[in-house]
Amino acid sequence: MPDCIFCQIIRGEIPCRKIYEDADIFAFHDIHPQQPVHFMIIPKQHIATLYDANESHQAVLGKVLAKAGELARIAGLDDGFRTIINTGRVGGQEVYHLHIHILGGPDPVGPMVRR
Ligand code: 5GP
Ligand code: ZN
């Protein structure tokens, strides 16, 4: 996906504050943080949404999730954090490259959804 903004970040064509990278996954700070700590973990493989994911993506999505605790620990989120995956129009997804948000800070993040 050459014009996908997150694919461009992975390729280093758009700068970011990188947290972690290996052969399969990439993590970086959100450009508009909504909590004192707000970063995203993404698969390097372009998967547009969680709706599009299937069993062939099991290993890389497992890696994305399995890395969350370690990266949160490094970020100092020892009292917990919120993980969010927005999907599609109804889910409020803005960037169509599957990503998991990690949000936290000293205070509780608040209700899961606005009522
Ligand atoms: P979504 O709404 O799709 O779940 O979240 C997309 C997130 O990507 C938003 O929180 C937005 O601030 C972030 N974002 C959009 N463009 C960029 C960018 O160029 N760099 C970084 N680091 N984050 C971005
Ligand atoms: Zn992409």
Question: What does the model show?
Answer:
With 115 residues, the protein is α+β, with helices and mostly antiparallel strands. It contains 3 helices and 5 strands; from the N terminus they run H-E-E-E-H-E-H-E. It has helices spanning 5-10, 58-74, 88-91; strands spanning 18-21, 25-29, 37-43, 82-84, 100-104. A 5-stranded antiparallel beta sheet has the order 1-2-3-5-4, with helices on one face. The radius of gyration is 14 Å and the shape is globular. It binds guanosine-5'-monophosphate and zinc ion. Zinc ion (ZN) binds at residues 1, 4, 6-7, 46, 97.
Rounded radius of gyration (Å): 14 Å
Question: Helical residue percent?
Answer: 10-25%
User: How many individual β-strands?
Assistant: 5
What does the overall shape look like? globular
Distance between the termini: 36 Å
Unreliable residue stretches: none
